[in-house]
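Ligand: 1,3-dihydroxyacetonephosphate. Inputs:
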Amino acid sequence: MRRPLIAGNWKMNLTRDEAVNLARGVGAAAGDGEVDVLVCPTFVHLEGVISAVEGSKVAVGGQDVYFESNGAFTGETSTAMLGDLGCQYVILGHSERRNVIGESDKLINQKLHAALAAGLKPILCVGELLEQREANETMAVVKSQLDGSLENVTAEQMANVVIAYEPVWAIGTGKTASPEQAQEVHADLRSLLATRYNQEVSDGVRILYGGSVKPANAADLMACPDIDGALVGGAALKADSFAEIIAAAGA
Ligand SMILES: O=C(CO)COP(=O)(O)O
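Predicted complex:
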């Protein structure tokens, strides 16, 4: 049985006070149900957010990380730095990093290995652009992202990896994938994992959906058999809407 994970990706938003207040609100709303809850603030707010959720069940993660352990890498943050602060997860390969910053599967793969070696749980994001969906390339795109990003990752290591399917056309647009569209890709991702690894890995890996998840659509998405939670952007920036999504996952 896969335990649902509801993760908030706060992206490049919020002042320090807003981030700490939101973290307190999420901590109070997270409850003690059978749902894992995660928030991923920007690096500069990590320490305040980690203090703010202390004593609650909310975990904290980074939105990215670099693969080298230390040295002359201006602007970068290491896995050890995240772990030292108390982060448990790190988002990798988000479409904004792939498409805006230009990250390759090779770089994401290096980051994923570094995260696993440091004891962080990577949330590996995959997803197609609108023109790729319209050209019926969705599965080819996510397969190539999955294969490239998971190169040399073992079946044992997959116990600590979370996948997030985030169709780029649904991110921040208000256009959610329908539960049927999302379920179809999630089921295909699970088959790819069975072929690449084995049935146990395929059955065990949590696959989150991301892209305009809101309180109004969360329950229908969570009801799909291969959707194990959500990676939430905009609706994670308010404690009450994020709490409603957590409740939908636990229902
Ligand atoms: O990119 C996302 C989460 O990582 C989704 O963002 P929105 O929920 O704002 O569409």
